[in-house]
């Protein structure tokens, strides 16, 4: 559980860092904002599933402005923090059933879903950094080791 909690500490930190950069150049990086929107919307979908609610009608790819992104960063961090605080080690192997946006049903363990969400976001944050570099903007340092080096 400590590793998963650390992964979410990193996820939240990285999301805040990407948000700050996109806020400072909002009009200049539409594709980066699309990727970031996708990360945040997907996090919202997954936490909804983990909470036992239907997520099939929630968007995964949708154009949202930077202010909505900022609110989602905050909401997702609060939701995942509360979820991780309440989940016990024994609950990590609990199986969750859900229906995706195309109507297909799946089952996965809480552990696998939490791992997926953390890795999914990092993949797309890398795409955002690639877009930033292509547009002449310094990429955001979001490596996990950078986070842990700053912690006592």
TrEMBL record:
<dbReference type="InterPro" id="IPR034660">
    <property type="entry name" value="DinB/YfiT-like"/>
</dbReference>
<feature type="binding site">
    <location>
        <position position="124"/>
    </location>
    <ligand>
        <name>a divalent metal cation</name>
    </ligand>
</feature>
<protein>
    <submittedName>
        <fullName>DinB family protein</fullName>
    </submittedName>
</protein>
<comment type="similarity">
    <text>Belongs to the DinB family.</text>
</comment>
<dbReference type="InterPro" id="IPR007837">
    <property type="entry name" value="DinB"/>
</dbReference>
<dbReference type="Pfam" id="PF05163">
    <property type="entry name" value="DinB"/>
</dbReference>
<feature type="binding site">
    <location>
        <position position="120"/>
    </location>
    <ligand>
        <name>a divalent metal cation</name>
    </ligand>
</feature>
<dbReference type="GO" id="GO:0046872">
    <property type="term" value="F:metal ion binding"/>
</dbReference>
<feature type="binding site">
    <location>
        <position position="38"/>
    </location>
    <ligand>
        <name>a divalent metal cation</name>
    </ligand>
</feature>
<keyword id="KW-0479">Metal-binding</keyword>
